[in-house]
Amino acid sequence: MRTHYSSEISEDAGGTQVTLAGWVHEIRDMGKLKFLILRDREGLIQVTAKSDTTDPAVLKTIGELTKESVIEVTGKVSPNSRAPKKVEIVPTSISVVSLSRTPLPLDVTGKVDADLDTRLNNRFMDVRKPAVAAVFKIRSKIQQAFREFFVQKDFIEINPPSIIAAASEGGTELFAISYFEREAFLCQSPQLYKQMMMSAGFDKVFITMPVFRAESHNTTRHLNEIFQMDIEKSFIADEEGVLQDLEGVVHYLLLKVSEDCAEELKTLGREVKIPAIPFRRLTYDEALQLLEKNGLKIPWGSDFTPEADKKLAELIDGPFFIKRWPTKLRAFYSKPFDEDPKYCRAFDLCYMGMEISSGAQRIHDHDELVESLKRKNLKPDNFEFYLKAFRYGMPPHGGWSIGAERMTEAITGVSNIRECVLYPRDRTRVEP
Ligand code: AMO
User: Fold this and answer.
1) Which end of the chain has fewer CB within 10 Å, C or N?
2) DSSP β-bridge partners for residue 96
């Protein structure tokens, strides 16, 4: 059984007997000298066998190995200034746990490139590449840090359903499923449920869950199954009450990634700059003006194009908020400003040229909400289960959602969001 990971072997452990387990990354047979690079979850280590000093049974096993086989190596730690990590293992026994077949569907050493489709079709093997695994270790850290932050702040974790009867963001973009004798849908956001829990008196909730969007566009920024990290919070004075949680958690998870994923960032050639709090805030109108001054005109009432997102990222360093959006652009639950209802208390958080989160202070008055649904051509009757929660005591509240994949994409710098999902679901891909 494994006693150490490769990363735990250092020069000063010279002479210690260890057992390592992992995959055969490379084999180099130089006649009298045989090198084997063993790869485990934490990295690579060289195993060196000399024909005059190594047990013949070990030499025979090395001769029969194929790349990517799983092996267990027992041997002595031996400092060697010429080895990649300045230390190697001199084996006393090698057992083949699982012999890999040949040829391999994918090269794991990074010497032969493969297109994304081939990589995704062979994802189990693609993730063996250190640079690919690094993306998922960073994603895991992001999700852990998110949970840690809100547990510390005394938020209650809730689990809304994934099978629902009504749209949460509007009428479109839902996947219909056959649910016994009726039609149901896959959840596109836990929105309505997290709001109802404000009426239940939970005050502060967080959620992490997959959501499903039947958007047909096939871009490098969009997925059809997304992992969202949400909060909802009551008794806020305005949208700032939840914006501060958003900048707080983004700051915290960038800090955690930079501290705990230093190796992974190095593997990806990335540096994380920790932004100062508060993040810059712009209104929608200010963002339009800034773009126009820099040669990009977006008509008032339109959403930002990917080009505009990119331009703003060039002009503003680090993450920033866009607040005070045109009401007509945002979901029905966004609260309009009393003094100028053309604008609402919705916001986006932009980072690295992408919208990574959006949210709003919500309408908490029942009749105002019914009117807002009607203005968006939605039928209040379809939202009866939700509206009911607004009739019997609903505090002012707001919330937001971060897309875990967009956040991972922003930090790791990969060029396609599919790189941040083990098994992405897009317009054409539902397998493996
Ligand atoms: P929204 O629809 O803006 O808001 O989604 C929130 C965040 O989720 C991510 N995201 C996506 N990522 C990849 N592909 C997609 N198709 C996709 N759609 C969304 C983005 C986005 O910022 N209920 C509201 C949130 C709220 O107000 O609390 C909502 O879902 O990072």
Assistant:
1) N
2) 71
Atom of ligand 1 nearest to the CA of 213: 16
User: CA 98 to CA 76: how far, in whole Å?
Assistant: 23
Three-state SS for 316? coil
C-alpha of residue 359 to centroid of ligand 1, in Å: 9
Nearest CA owner, ligand 1 atom 1: 358
Q: Which residues of 124-135 are buried (b: 16+ CB within 10 A; e: fewer)?
A: ebbebbbebbbb
Residue 13's pLDDT band (cuts 50, 70, 90) = confident
Answer yes or no: is pLDDT of 42 > 90.
Answer: yes
**CA dist., res. 224 & res. 216, Å (int):** 8
Report how far apart, in Å, the C-alpha atoms of 160 and of each of 176, 206, 365, 407 are: 18, 10, 23, 22
**Closest residue to atom 14 of ligand 1, CA basis:** 222
Q: Is 160 in the pocket of ligand 1 (CB under 6 A)?
A: no
Residue 215, pLDDT score: 87
Test site for ligand 1: of 344, 354, 363, 401, most ligand atoms within 8 A of the Cβ: 401
Nearest-atom number in ligand 1 for the CA of 231 is 28
Would the pLDDT of 171 be above 80? no
Element holding 131 (H helix, E strand): helix 130-152
What does residue 261 show for φ and ψ, rounded to 5 degrees? -120, 35
**Measured from the CB, is residue 358 less than 6 Å from ligand 1?**
yes
User: How far, in Å, CA of 156 to CA of 194, rounded?
Assistant: 11
Name the residue among 50, 48, 40 with its Cα closest to residue 72: 40
The dihedral over CA atoms of 403, 328, 217, 288, expressed in degrees to the nearest 10, equals: -80
**What would the mean pLDDT of 29-54 be, rounded to a whole number?**
94
SS (H, E, C) 38-65: EEECCEEEEEEEECCCCCHHHHHHHHHC
Task: Calculate what percentage of the chain has a pLDDT beyond 70.
Answer: 98
Q: Please indicate whether residue 361, judged by its CB atom, sits closer than 6 Å to ligand 1.
A: no
Q: Is the pLDDT at 365 greater than 90, yes or no? A: yes
Cα of 213 from ligand 1 centre, angstroms: 10
